[in-house]
Amino acid sequence: MHLVLFLIFAAFCLAGAINLLLQTHPINSALSLIVVMSSLAVLYLLLGAEFLAAAQIIVYAGAVMVLFTFVVMLLNVGEEEKTHGSQVAKVIGFPAVVVILGVISTIVLEAQKHLGGVSLSDGVTTTQDLSRVLFHELLLPFELTSVLILIAILGAVALARKEGHS
Amino acid sequence: MNFDVVPSSWYLILSALLFSLGVIGFLIKRSLITVFMSIELMLNAVNLSFVTFAHEWHAVKGQIFVFFVMMVAAAEAAVGLAIIISIFRARATLNVDQIDLMKL
Question: For residue A166, what pLDDT is reported?
Fold first, then answer.
């Protein structure tokens, strides 16, 4: 059961990510990214992270992607122009991607026998467990993120404001 | 084969594949907004690794790290999209090949 669910949603993830690369219109790319993020939420649920699955749907698939689609529509972005792009990206970038993927896969496959498995009966990390650690041990970083978000709001407003309306 | 157990390594390899697809997207896409989406894809791929290791070692802090990544990513998306809007206002294009100067 778990294997079937994993394969289905992993396939959705990869298909969405590949479709993001193949589409030429940004709105189609944004919609495939929503598919990737929602499938990732299911994978988090399979890994027992129920709070993160909900947060993934609400924050990523909801808020962030709505912002993306809003901007695509607001700017009325058309089809992407096909330009040749950077030579450096082709010469260094693609071999680097292959090397990174190869190294990570080799290490993971090498370590496979030391790693365990994931099954549905492993139990979930409840929101209670999560909040206990978050508010007892990591309260200062949590409060600092609120400052970060406040600065981000001010920055976004300052950047997106039209000139001459001071 | 046991259908109820998936090796943790499969999750990690899926995460590596998603990250690589994100990097490829960053390199081949020519629209600024899709490049930004590729960055979000890479962030999500790394989050999957974090959750997998948190499950592997029963460490709640791994999941909390993902929570922080999500918060920072939301803030980053807001600022990034504001920058994209102001770039579009200044140049009327989102093609990364034409956006090669820091200021007009």
Answer: 52
Residues of A in contact with B76 (CB under 8 A): 152
CATH 3.10.180.10, domain A1-78, yes or no: no
Sign, CA torsion A139/A141/A145/A151: positive
Q: Is residue B36 part of a domain?
A: yes
| A121 neighbourhood in chain B, CB within 8 Å | 4
Q: What are the pLDDT digits (tens) for A137-156?
A: 999 999 999 999 999 999 99
Q: How close A115 gets to chain B, by Cα (Å)?
A: 6
Cβ contacts of B89 on chain A, cutoff 8 Å: 162
Task: List Cα–Cα distances, B56 to A39, A58, A76, A157, in angstroms.
Answer: 20, 25, 45, 41
| ipTM given for this complex | 0.90
Summarize pLDDT for B56-95 with one digit per residue, the tens.
Answer: 888 899 999 999 999 999 999 999 999 999 888 888 888 8
Task: Enumerate the domain spans of chain A.
Answer: 1-78, 126-166
Question: d(Cα B29, Cα B56) in Å, to the nearest integer?
Answer: 35
CA distance B101 to chain A (A): 15
For residues B77 and A66, the answer to whether their CB atoms sit within 8 Å is no
**Contact call for A156 and B82, based on CB within 8 A:** yes
